From TrEMBL:
Keyword Signal: yes
SUPFAM superfamilies: PDZ domain-like, Trypsin-like serine proteases
Signal peptide range in chain numbering: 1-24
One function term, GO molecular function aspect: serine-type endopeptidase activity
Keywords in alphabetical order: Hydrolase, Protease, Serine protease, Signal
Residues of the PDZ domain: 259-343
Family: Belongs to the peptidase S1C family.
One biological process term in Gene Ontology: proteolysis
Organism this protein belongs to: OM182 bacterium MED-G24
Name this polypeptide is given: 2-alkenal reductase
A Pfam family assignment: PDZ_2
Record InterPro entries: Chloro_Bact_Ser_Proteases, PDZ, PDZ_sf, Peptidase_S1_PA, Peptidase_S1_PA_chymotrypsin, Peptidase_S1C
Length: 369
C-alpha cells in the first residue's frame, strides 16, 4: 500500500537540463503526416461562457500581483571548505500592500540566506524577511520596488466560503510562472501540520490543482479576492491529486500586523509551565498538567497551582487544564491554539481538574516575554 503524505507545495529548483524528443534520430521520412482538421476560429468574446470570461478577467486583474519567490542558501562545496550560494527552492507569493509587503509560506523561505522576488514584469528584487510564523506557515517579506509595480489583491472573507464555491489558484508550479488552475471549495475546517509541528485549524480544502511551487500563492474567489494562501497538498506522489489546502485569509490578516510589529506571532501567555504531552500520555493525564506557575503572572494572581510536594516528599498533580472558555484542551498544541484567539489583557476562563475536583479560574493574560 502506498504511503501517503501531506507535503508542502514547494519545488526544489535543482535541474537545468532539458531534452528534445525529436533530436533522437527522427526525420521527416520517419513519420507520416496529415493535415489537421481545424474547427472554426473563435474570435468573438461573446461566444465565451460567463464562467470563462470570469476566469479570464480575474487572471488578467490579479496575476501581475503574484510573484515568484526563490530561496538560496549557503552550502559547502563537496570535499572543500569553500562556501557558495546555491538555489534551495522556489515558490509563490503575492503583493499584500503597495509598500512592498509580500505574503508567502514560511516553508518557502525557511533557512534562506537570500530571498529574491521576481515580478511578472521580469524585474527581480532581493527581499527582506519582515517576520515569520512557522506555527502558521506564514512569512512576510518586503521589497523595495516602485509603488506603481505593486498592486495588492483585494482581500475577501474566508468565513463566508461554503463548500461548492468556485476558487482559483495562481502560482508557479514546477517553476512554471503565473499558472492558473480552477476548482471549488471541497471542504472547510480541515487541520494540517505546520513546519513547526503545530496544528493549523480551519484550513480550506480545494480541488483546484496545487502542485509543488504553488506554495504561498493566493487562492481567489469568483470576485478576484484573496480567500486563502495555498500551502500544501495531500498526495502519494508529491504531485496534485485533487486535494489541496489553503490557510484562510482571515487568519492571515490577523498574523500580518503581528509580524510587522513584532516579527513573530505575539501570543498572550497564562504564566505557567506545563508537562510535555508524551509524559502526560505515559501518566494517563487527560488535559494539560501545570507543572509550575510563574510568580506574579496572571495564572498566579488567579490562584492556579502547579505540581506540589507533600511533607513526605511525594509529588501531587496541581491544576490540569481541560478547557479555555469553551475550547476543549487535550494537549499543549490545543492549549496554544486556544490562546491564539486572545490578546494580552484579555480575561479568560480556565477550567481545570485538581484532586478530582473541577475548578474555574478567571485569568488575565500577560504579554509574552
Amino acid at each position: 500500500m502506498l504511503k501517503q503524505y501531506i507535503v508542502p507545495a514547494l519545488v526544489l529548483v535543482v535541474c537545468a537540463a532539458a531534452f528534445n524528443y525529436f533530436s533522437a534520430g527522427f526525420t521527416d521520412a520517419d513519420v507520416t503526416t496529415s493535415s489537421p482538421v481545424l474547427g472554426p476560429a473563435i474570435t468573438d468574446p461573446s461566444t465565451l461562457t460567463s464562467d470563462e470570461n470570469n476566469n479570464i478577467g480575474i487572471y488578467r486583474e490579479t496575476s501581475p500581483s503574484v510573484v515568484f519567490v526563490t530561496n538560496t542558501q549557503l552550502r559547502r562545496r563537496l570535499f572543500s571548505l569553500n562556501v557558495m550560494e546555491a538555489p534551495a527552492g522556489s515558490g509563490t507569493g503575492f503583493v499584500w500592500s503597495d509598500s512592498g509587503l509580500i505574503v508567502t509560506n514560511y516553508h518557502v523561505v525557511h533557512a534562506a540566506n537570500r530571498i529574491n522576488i521576481t515580478l511578472t514584469n521580469g524585474n527581480s528584487y532581493q527581499a527582506e524577511l519582515v517576520g515569520a510564523a512557522p506555527e502558521k506557515d506564514i512569512a512576510l517579506l518586503r521589497i523595495d520596488a516602485p509603488d506603481e509595480t505593486l498592486t495588492p489583491i483585494p482581500l475577501g472573507n474566508s468565513d463566508a466560503l461554503s463548500v461548492g464555491r468556485k476558487v482559483l489558484a495562481i502560482g508557479n508550479p514546477f517553476a512554471l510562472d503565473t499558472t492558473l488552475t480552477v476548482g471549488v471549495v471541497s471542504a472547510l475546517g480541515r487541520e494540517i501540520q505546520s513546519p513547526a509541528n503545530r496544528t493549523i485549524k480551519n484550513v480550506i480544502q480545494t480541488d483546484a490543482a496545487i502542485n509543488p511551487g504553488n506554495s504561498g500563492g493566493p487562492l481567489l474567489n469568483s470576485m478576484g479576492e484573496v480567500v486563502g494562501v495555498n500551502t500544501a497538498i495531500y498526495s502519494p506522489s508529491g504531485a496534485s491529486a485533487g486535494i489541496g489546502f489553503a490557510i484562510p485569509v482571515n487568519a492571515v490578516s490577523k498574523i500580518v500586523p503581528q509580524l510587522i510589529e513584532h516579527g513573530r506571532l505575539y501570543r498572550p501567555v497564562l504564566g505557567i509551565e506545563t508537562m510535555p504531552d508524551r509524559w502526560a500520555a505515559q501518566l494517563r493525564v487527560q488535559g494539560v498538567a501545570v507543572t509550575s506557575v510563574v510568580r506574579g503572572s496572571g495564572a498566579d494572581r488567579a490562584g492556579m497551582v502547579g505540581v506540589r510536594e507533600d511533607r513526605f516528599g511525594k509529588l501531587h498533580f496541581g491544576d490540569i487544564i481541560i478547557a479555555i472558555n469553551d475550547d476543549e484542551v487535550i494537549s499543549n498544541d490545543s492549549l496554544l491554539t486556544a490562546l491564539e484567539t486572545y490578546k494580552p489583557g484579555d480575561e479568560i476562563k480556565v477550567t481545570t481538574r485538581i484532586d478530582d475536583e473541577i475548578r474555574e479560574y478567571q485569568v488575565v493574560l500577560d504579554k509574552p516575554k
